[in-house]
Design a protein that fits this description.
Blueprint lengths: L11 H10 L3 E5 L3 H9 L4 E4 L3 H4 L11 H12 L6 E5 L9 H15 L3 E3 L7 H9 L4 E6 L5 H4 L9 H17 L3 E5 L3 H10 L4 E4 L7 E4 L1 H4 L17 H18 L10
Parallel strand pairs: 1-2, 1-8, 2-3, 3-4, 4-5, 5-6, 6-7, 7-8
Helix pairs in contact: 2-4, 4-5, 5-6, 8-9
The structure holds 3-methyl-2-oxobutanoic acid.
The site of 3-methyl-2-oxobutanoic acid has 12 residues, from β6.
Length: 271
Amino acid sequence: MSVEGKGRVLTTRKLLSMKMKGEKIAMLTAYDYTSARIVDEAGIDIILVGDSAANVMAGHETTLPITIDQMIYHAQSVMRAVKNPLVVVDMPFGTYQGNSKMALSNAVRIMKESEADAVKVEGGSEVLESVQRILSAGIPVMGHLGLTPQSIHKFGTYSVRAKEEAEAEKLLQDALALEEAGCFAIVLEKIPAALGKRVAESLKIPVIGIGAGRYVDGQVLVMHDMLGLNTEFSPRFLRRYHNLRDEYLKAFHQYVEDVKSGDFPNEQEQY
Ligand code: KIV
């Protein structure tokens, strides 16, 4: 529970006050119990149970195939682990677009079954009615603009969005509309830093970037990417904090070798 005085430290109100004080917000994805515990211990402000689970956990090329049941499973695993951060769950593709009643019932399912704190949806004016209806049930909503991976088949590319003024202006208007509707924060993905700055300065709610430059109110990365588990994925915005793939590989090689050679288990490792 993230209600102030009753449980975890991070609330949507706290995020707002962080923005007002100029305190940067650190957000990271997590999809399972063990990693979420470590992320929590590291002092993260927001955990996103991202639909990027479709890519990094399940190996799909896009985020489209992940189901609401799968998202709830990941969110439940994360919720068992966390004490402090706010936990936001991505609403998967097809669960909120085009039908606001369906959007509300899916958001309610996520909140009831996972006990997470908020949901995230991609898009601006196209999904505004759904956002408003979800908010009307008291469910906090985080927006997501710029590169919106659930629309990859419409855009056809994962390249930087809103480089042209018309698209930049639409993005700003969408951000303002999401704020006006009552969203508590917005993620901006892969847009020019100058636009990230413009949006962050125009909004009272926190703007959290992934490839949106340094002038926004916080940053989010996909855990597997920042740990260096995916070496094929290296966009400019990604800072790798580890080369965990090589560490894993070294350990797995050693294990195979030790089993094959009979070195493992030794006298002390048996009963
Ligand atoms: O699903 C996800 O991980 C996301 C982040 C890229 C913001 O939406």
